[in-house]
Amino acid sequence: MASGNQTVVYLSEQVIVLCSCVLSFVGSSVIILTYICWSDLRTTPRKLLVFLSVSDWLSAVSYAFGVWRVFHTDSLDCIVQGAISTFANTSSFFWTVAIAVYLYVFIVRSSQRVADSLVLFFHLVSWGVPLAITVAAVCLNKIGYNASEVSVGWCWVRINAPDRVLWMLLTGKIWEFLAYLTLPVLYILIKRHIHIAHAALSEYRPILANRPPSHSFSSMADMKLTLIPVIFIVLRIWSTVRFILLLAGSPARLNPVLVTLHGIGNTSQGAANCIMFVLFTQPIRTRLCTALCCCSKCRAEVQRSDDAPHRLLPGQDPSTQREEDSTARAQTDR
Fold it and tell me: What count of other Cβ atoms lies within 10 Å of the Cβ of residue 69?
């Protein structure tokens, strides 16, 4: 799969990764639109999810452009695409960890006031640090063509930069490693706290016997707390494996399956978040289905109303129908 000093990106890999980008674009857009459309869903955790979705949206668009173009030189559009994807991807890491920190403070520390006060800090870190790193990398001429050595067609850190490993760490990998460590620890602590609280509450269940059971809600929340770090690691691990293989100088990083998994993993975060926080969240899923059904019913009713005047009744002459239509239009004009 290597051609000289360049990793060849096959058409099949392009198509698969582009489809993943489209799904992530749609998923991120759905999360953002549901937040805008339904004001009662605008809680702080979902607001943080929207900021994460903005980063994933930018990532999907920039990665799609890079995969479609498959750059071969340090062109201007290569540098722009590399800068946008670097900023968006790094910001996505920070917002993913920020959501976990917020939930930990809110649930485990039982302090909504402290959790809400962290939102401004999250903005400064999750937008500011990636922006500073990206601007520094562009100004120092570190972003550009990297021969798809640790990418799938898109541009990142220049392949010929003497300190490229350092800049690969700064523009993504070190934050990825920290997220691998931080997310499982925080979500395990959150799950442990919830289970302890449920165990303590079980002593009072005879008193609350008349209350409707909420096992399905609890099990779904428990499943999400398990899936969030697992899905993040499963999606991101392939790029980490290729990075480690690059450091080791192993040609295994050029394996077509590994390259494809890397492309899918780096571009699927928006789609995964949509599945977990829209499709697997019953109130939002119900509203979304209702809205889609209403739209289809409205279109059907409009179509029927447009077709109705043109239908002839049994035994009605076409000329009579035209006269009736002209009379109706004249009356309407008055």
Answer: 16
| Comparison of pLDDT for 26 and 285, the residue scoring more | 26
Report how far residue 172's alpha carbon sits from residue 324's, in angstroms, rounded to the nearest whole number.
71
- Residue 156: helix, strand or coil by DSSP? strand
Dist CA 83 CA 134 (whole Å): 6
Residues 6+ apart with CB under 8 A from 219: none
The model's pLDDT over 111-125, given as tens digits with 9 standing for 90+, comes to 889 999 999 999 999
Give the model's pLDDT for residue 299.
Answer: 59
SS3 157: strand
Rg (CA), the chain: 26
- Which pTM value belongs to this model? 0.81
Q: How far apart are CA 205 and CA 67, in angstroms?
A: 56
Tokens of 166: 């350092």
**Residue 43, number of CB atoms within 10 A of its CB:** 10
Q: Provide CB contacts within 8 A for 271, sequence distance 6+.
A: 20, 23, 24, 26, 27
CB-based contact 247:173 (threshold 8 Å): no
Contact 87, 134 (CB under 8 A): yes
Find the range with the poorest average confidence among 153-167, 208-222, 232-246.
Answer: 208-222
What DSSP character marks residue 214?
-
